[in-house]
Protein: Two-component system, response regulator RegA
Organism: Methylobacterium phyllostachyos
Amino acid sequence: MLTQPGTAAATDAAVLSDADPLAAFSDRSLLIVDDDKPFSTRLARAMESRGYHVQVADSVADGVSAVETRAPAFAVIDMRLGDGNGLDVIARLKERRPEARGVILTGYGNIATAVTAVKLGAFDYLAKPADADEIHGTLMAQPGERADPPENPMSADRVRWEHIQRVYELCGRNVSETARRLNMHRRTLQRILAKRAPR
């Protein structure tokens, strides 16, 4: 909830919000719903360091349950989950807390579906892999406005590397299966995995 203007507290909050827009919100609860454990763990830590009070769920069922227990002020929800569609969580969140800001994360091939998600109640959508700065900026954007582009966005090489790492983790770190799914030669993949992440 935003502090009402016209008070000393509101003035202080306005000054703080220039540097940290989240400071203007009294409720900083954030629900992350994603079945990619390495990604959700990294994101949870990064969002906590930015001042959010984070809860993580890894399925539609757990996400809906978390919303029923205490609807958060913010949510970051993956479109595709093992037991269904993240839109079900967004829909329930908007029923329980209409002013909540929910961001849908989607693969590059699902942007059209993500636009539909916004029409159904999502505050905005981002293509994966999205980093914490990008997600935070989107959650803090004014309604109807797109977030400012990040100052230091991931390079194309880094986006590719993150995608390969994600598929590798989802394949249980099985190099052969990852190479097959990425339609990549096994030795090429091994060379990529042996290198440090590009900037």
